[in-house]
Amino acid sequence: MIRRLSDLIARNRAGSREVVPSVCTTQPEVLSASLLLARDQETLLLVEATSNQVNQFGGYTGMTPVDFRRRLEVMAQRLEVDPAQIVLGGDHLGPQVWRRQGAEAAMSAACEMVRAYVQAGFRKIHLDCSEACAGDPEPLPQALCAQRAARLAAECEAAAPNPNSLAYVIGTEVPRPGGALGEEEVLRPTRPEDAREVIELHREAFARIAPAAWERVVALVVQPGVEFSPQHVTHYDPAQVGALETALQGHPQMCFEAHSTDYQRPRALAAIAAKHFAILKVGPGLTDAFRSALYRLDGLAADGAPPGGPGELARTLEQLMVGDDRHWREHYRGTAQEVSRLRHHSYADRIRYYWPQPAAQQAVAALYARIDAAGWPPYVLRDLFPEQVLERAEALREIAAGAAQALVLASVQDALMPYFRTRHS
Q1: I need a labelling partner for 156 at 20 to 30 A (CA). Which of 27, 182, 229, 307 fits?
Q2: pLDDT at position 258, please?
Q3: Same fold, 2-282 and 288-420
Q4: CATH 3.20.20.70: does it fit domain 2-282?
Q5: Cα–Cα distance, 348 to 356 (Å, whole number)
Q6: Alpha helices in 210-311 (DSSP H)
Q7: Any residues with CB less than 8 A from the CB of 125 and at least 6 apart, and which?
Q8: What is the pLDDT of residue 425?
Q9: CA 13, 17, 18: angle at the middle one, nearest 5?
Q10: Which CATH class is domain 288-420?
Q11: pTM for the full model?
């Protein structure tokens, strides 16, 4: 698996513009749609979990690294996806979860976490020690970030049955991960000289602490000038990026990794790939496609279907979000009407945290039943879904639980497909 990733990076560095999509989500239908698309495209897929989502204590999903791997394996087996097409990754692995503690306590927990990831079979490890812990200077000096990352790499090397099976990613993007650009922030692409400095500082730290691991560093996370806030998408502008790719000179095994590429136009993804970004991360853009498809179906009238009627799903989610606002209250600002709209339609897609709740699951199942019972014909559905989604949904009917779920899976695949087509765009 790692050899296939390294080969893809080499082809990208040679000018192919190939990328591997990095899907960062725990939503089952989004993962299923992504795995099926990778299977059909006969290409590699990165599936990643963050340190907040999954860690040795369960994270906010309640899953340890072993839990996540086992769930994905069961899903891949059910969908008949070749395991060799899937690379498991850990994203932003560092002391962030425990940063309110002192540095040593936070780093000890981070060491335990990366060992758990590696022992569970995660192979692509993003080492991110960029956030300050209690008592640290702010911003954290780059040399200290690199030293801590090298310490985590040494833990990974010691924990791995075969260290050669690992691939490391270093660095981080600015601003904070996950679509966090605020109204007051100005997005600036990484300068080549800054990228070179990060590489050199990490090389020096690895040489002291984890020398063998440096050969397995395959990517550097930098900012190509793409981001999204709850209400706005910053689209890629090649004129702002300049000669960023020159920072990789002298490091033929390395590529760039781009985060928060959600909602970028297909031609932008191809242009980013041409700058040697061989790993493109996407998450909320896929769960938003899932939500959007469900809401379109939710708006259909239910002629001849069981009781329920249009809008039931949206009303259920509204009740859940208003009743428990911890996942969105710090992210959305504005009038009551604006915040209400953001809860459901924001690019940040904070609604994704509510889909696992039993009431939401029941509402989705009821929606699927209503739509399937109504038997909406294509001449109606074409007003809601583009032709390529309707066509893809037909191909998914044998795998999906019904016509409605097939439309939802197809909508997610439609959002992900541009990542597989960068070399043809």
Answers
A1: 27
A2: 98
A3: no
A4: yes
A5: 17
A6: 238-241, 266-274, 284-298
A7: 89, 90, 93, 114, 117, 118, 153, 156, 166, 167, 168, 169
A8: 72
A9: 95
A10: mainly alpha
A11: 0.95
